[in-house]
Design a protein that fits this description.
The complex is a heterodimer of chains A (about 425) and B (about 450).
Chain A: H1 2-10, H2 17-24, H3 28-40, H4 49-61, E1 65-68, E2 75-81, E3 86-92, H5 119-135, E4 142-149, H6 157-163, H7 166-169, E5 175-186, E6 190-192, E7 195-198, E8 200-209, E9 213-214, H8 224-242, E10 249-258, E11 264-265, E12 268-277, H9 280-300, E13 310-313, E14 321-323, H10 325-339, E15 344-346, E16 368-376, H11 399-417
Parallel strand pairs in A: 3-4, 3-5, 5-16, 6-15
Antiparallel strand pairs in A: 1-2, 2-4, 6-16, 7-14, 8-12, 8-13, 9-11, 10-12
Helix pairs in contact in A: 2-11, 3-5, 3-11, 5-11, 8-9, 10-11
Chain B: H1 2-10, H2 17-24, H3 28-40, H4 49-61, E1 65-70, E2 82-89, E3 94-100, E4 119-121, E5 127-129, H5 136-152, E6 159-166, H6 174-180, H7 183-187, E7 192-203, E8 207-209, E9 212-215, E10 217-226, E11 230-231, H8 241-259, E12 266-275, E13 281-282, E14 285-294, H9 297-317, E15 327-330, E16 339-341, H10 343-357, E17 362-364, E18 386-394, H11 396-405, H12 421-439
Parallel strand pairs in B: 3-6, 3-7, 7-18, 8-17
Antiparallel strand pairs in B: 1-2, 2-6, 4-5, 8-18, 9-16, 10-14, 10-15, 11-13, 12-14
Helix pairs in contact in B: 2-12, 3-5, 3-12, 5-12, 8-9, 10-12
Classes of the chains: A alpha/beta (about 425), B alpha+beta (about 450).
Chain lengths: ~425, ~450
């Protein structure tokens, strides 16, 4: 008890959860109404015109200086509150091409489009944070930069905002924060980890080219199906033999297509790969290795020089999400103190992707933390059962609990970070 | 010279080539007109209704006893257009001579004045041109020539001649349909069977064949490698069927390299492999289509057993659940047995042809891994000695350029294939009649 008190005192620079709740509780009903409206009117990636307009209007009425159209439909809302650090808080706005099947009263009214990844929760949490931070502005100093980002699902939005001069026109933030709902955790649980939390995502297309012919005369052909199969097998050695043991990496051939019938050897086979890694060194090792192996297998088969494989690395990849270890430790201690030991959990790294990592910049000079807020009723998770996950047509987070916890976690973190030195 | 004369005398039973020519030459223009008509009106496999009617009426007018619509497919309600023409000419052996009638779904591009303009839909519903791109029109015309010659020369031989016009060679169901309908029970089990085929890689008029295996067992196998799909970023939570299918294709190569006796001909080709929809989704299954070729039955068994064993072994090695083991289907309908030329009969006919057609007009053909359902007429126990032979049908200069310089040649099954028909038909009739009158000698 004494120890806990001592910890609390040493972190007491920011506001407490109790203080957040006093301001937040009377506003929750209207935040949930906003959430239901956003949920009912989802817009696809790069098409978030109405959603961003709603967000901008609400942030303006709260007293923020709002700029719209910053990188696609990006919204930037600034609240300058004296001298101090700058904190970026980001929410994403786009929905998915999924036909909703939740049966909720506020289900999507747009057929084939659904907020199935919780971006509606993220936006509502951002609005709650905006309101509480504005109300408590005598408790912090510095600049709050709230961001509504387009096109997270297609990996374009963060890049578009940075290319539009986000850090040059407004400010390069001292810290960056963002949250994501998590169907895999009980509602209200906050989880994150130091270091890499989500992966580099790269897409590679390979056309393995041979020389086709009759299936009964293999000696006259260079069989691209045999070459592509050898390629799939040899690609496995990138992770097993070339990456350091324990270094995460994934090379998945998700699509393999060649040929039309049994007795014709085709001219080519098309492969589509997804490649996941954390650090830039691992990423380069995998991408270089894929090209080297593809060319090597073709050379081993004596393919003519003009029929070597065609390897295309897609530019739309997203970099790994790297949580600054010092900042993550600091926030984790604050959350344990403010939200309770049992509410904060460590998290295993995943090989899925997110473009929030871009806000750290390639040199990680903006310390950032990406954290998750559990969104599932624990009753649905008993006996090892899984609730409908993100991107599912039946994904239905317990929004009120998640929004409340999202605002609490963000505000206690933000007010702790925004203190005059 | 003396030696040659001795050989000639030794094999001289039957009608000599010059006597065939004397009877054949005045008939050639009419045969060529028949050929052009057949070429201009091709019909797809199992649809040879008009073609078979033309053949039947010509054979009837020559004096043969003709049975039409002979054959039974797997679906007994489906009509079959086989023709059997019999001429009993006293006591003696029975000889079966076969021609095939079906054309291919190829749109003709030869520019010939008698080119096919026929269009139709394949069983799969795809609009296509139809063309005699495999020379079956030459085969039928040769058979009509043979029918006419044998009738004219009937006092030079004794026995029974059974001419058959077979449907559906290209899809492998025709010979089976005729044998299933009781060909040998109703018309007599032949003492010999012969069939000819045009050869685009051999100079026009040259007869080529070989004793023993000439064409391969053709088997069709479909393999579905089943795993457990999932997200491409979570390989540890799935059983990846693309990796398993990749292992399968690579491991299948060891059947020929490590399991088949060195020197035995065998082919395992994966012609088609399809799995997945996009980069980051691991699919539930991958489908592979294989063609499997061999000569000997024991090699065929090694190949088919190996495919199944390796597919199951790879699934087991990957820890696939018991209910997701691979599905391996060896087609029971899409197969053709190897074509085996009876060695004694082949030697006999090759010696005869060298003597009658000239040494340079006869050559040994290399064995191929293609397939032909003429093989079925030998029966599984090969109790009907059979010879399948090829008649060169390409311009000799083009053939030389092809073999010496690798210059492309219009091959069978292609839109520009145009055999030198008159030479091939003439040589086909000569070779068949000298062989037939020798086998059915007085």
């Amino acid at each position: 008890m004494l120890v806990a008190l001592a910890v609390h005192v040493s972190l007491a620079a920011g506001v407490s959860t109790a203080e957040v709740d006093k301001v937040l509780s009377p506003k929750l009903a209207s935040l949930v109404a906003t959430y239901e409206d956003l949920h009912a009117h989802p817009e696809l990636s790069e098409k978030e015109a109405q959603t961003s307009a709603k967000l901008a209007a609400k942030l303006k009425t709260l007293g923020y200086a709002v700029t719209t159209g910053v990188g696609l439909h990006g919204v930037v809302a600034i609240l300058k509150n004296g001298d101090g650090p700058t904190l970026l808080v980001r929410a994403d706005m786009d929905a998915l091409p999924v036909t909703e099947d939740t049966g909720l009263t506020y289900a999507s009214t747009t057929r084939g489009v659904m907020h199935a990844c919780g971006h509606d929760v993220h936006m509502t949490s951002l609005l709650g944070t905006a309101e509480v931070m504005a109300r408590l502005k005598d408790r912090w100093r510095g600049t709050l930069m709230l961001i509504g980002q387009s096109a997270e699902e297609v990996g374009k939005g963060a890049k578009a905002m940075l290319s539009a001069g986000l850090y040059e026109k407004f400010a390069k933030p001292t810290y960056a924060l963002a949250l994501h709902v998590d169907a895999g955790s009980p509602m209200g649980v906050v989880s994150t980890r130091s270091g890499y939390v989500l992966a580099n995502v790269d897409s590679v297309d390979i056309t393995v080219r041979g020389v086709g012919g009759h299936g009964a005369a293999p000696e006259m052909a260079k069989d691209p199906i045999v070459m592509a199969s050898e390629l799939v097998m040899t690609l496995q050695t990138l992770v097993s033999r070339e990456l350091s043991p324990g270094e995460p990496g994934v090379v998945t051939v998700g699509s393999f297509h060649g040929g039309t019938k049994h007795n014709i050897i085709p001219d080519e086979v098309k492969l589509q790969l997804t490649v996941r890694s954390y650090g830039e060194a691992a990423r380069k090792l995998l991408l270089d290795g894929i090209a080297r192996i593809a060319n090597g297998v073709a050379a081993a088969h004596g393919v003519p020089a003009d029929r070597m494989p065609v390897i295309t690395n897609h530019p739309g990849g997203t970099p790994a999400t790297y949580n600054d270890p010092e900042l993550t430790e600091r926030l984790t201690r604050i959350w344990i103190a403010e939200l309770g030991e049992s509410t904060v959990k460590p998290r295993a790294p995943r090989m899925t992707g997110e473009d929030f990592g871009r806000f750290s910049l390639p040199d990680h000079s903006v310390p950032a933390v990406f954290f998750f807020v559990g969104a599932t009723d624990p009753k649905l998770m008993e006996h090892g059962k899984a609730a409908p996950s993100e991107h599912s047509s039946r994904f239905a987070p317990v929004a009120e609990v998640v929004i409340k916890r999202g605002v609490q976690a963000t505000v206690v973190a933000a007010t702790a970070l925004l203190q005059a030195r | 010279m003396i030696l040659a004369l001795v050989i000639h005398v030794a094999v001289a039973a039957g009608v000599p080539s010059n006597e065939v020519d004397k009877a054949l030459t005045p008939k050639l223009p009419a045969l060529l007109a028949t050929y052009k008509d057949l070429h201009a009106s091709p019909e797809l496999s199992e649809k040879e209704e008009k073609t078979s009617a033309k053949l039947a009426s010509k054979l009837k007018s020559l004096g043969y006893t003709v049975t039409t619509n002979f054959g039974r497919y797997a679906d007994p309600k489906q009509p079959a257009y086989g023709v059997v023409a019999v001429f009993k000419n006293g006591n003696g052996p029975t000889l079966l001579v076969r021609a095939d009638m079906d054309a291919l779904p190829v749109t003709e591009e030869t520019g010939l004045p008698f080119a096919s303009k026929v269009r139709t839909k394949t069983p799969a519903g795809v609009e296509t041109g139809v063309m005699h791109a495999c020379g079956h029109d030459v085969h039928m015309t040769s058979m009509l020539g043979t029918a006419e010659m044998m009738m004219q020369l009937k006092d030079k031989w004794r026995g029974t001649l059974v001419l058959i016009a077979q449907p559906a060679e290209e899809v492998g169901s025709g010979a089976k349909s005729m044998l299933s309908a009781g060909l040998y029970e109703k018309f007599g089990k032949p003492n010999y069977a012969i069939g000819l085929h045009v050869d685009s890689e051999t100079a026009a008029g040259v007869v080529v064949t070989r004793p023993g295996f000439l064409l391969a067992n053709v088997d069709t196998v479909e393999v579905t490698m089943r795993g457990v799909g999932g997200h491409g970023a979570y390989p540890n939570l799935v059983k990846d069927p693309i990796v398993m299918a990749g292992e399968l294709v690579v491991a299948l190569q060891t059947i020929v390299s490590r399991e088949v006796t060195p020197g035995e001909a065998a082919v395992v080709t994966v012609g088609s492999i399809h799995g997945g929809t996009k980069s980051n989704v691991i699919p539930d299954e991958v489908k592979l289509q294989l063609t499997v070729r061999s000569y000997k039955e024991e090699v065929r068994k090694v190949l088919l057993a190996g495919i199944s064993r390796i597919a199951n072994g790879i699934a087991a090695a990957n820890g696939v659940p018991g209910d997701r083991m691979p599905i391996v289907k060896v087609s029971e309908t899409d197969n053709t047995p190897a074509l085996y030329n009876n060695p004694e009969l082949t030697e006999r006919l090759m010696t005869l042809w060298k003597s009658e057609l000239g040494e340079s007009a006869v050559a040994i053909k290399e064995a191929r891994m293609g397939g032909e359902d003429f093989s079925r007429y030998s029966l599984e126990d090969r109790s009907v000695p059979a010879v399948f032979f090829f008649v060169g049908a390409s311009d000799p200069k083009a053939v030389e350029a092809y073999h010496k310089e690798g210059k492309p040649l219009a091959q069978g099954h292609t839109a520009r294939y145009a055999p030198v028909a008159e030479v091939a038909i003439r040589r086909g009739v000569q070779a068949t009649v000298v062989a037939a009158t020798n086998l059915l000698a007085l």
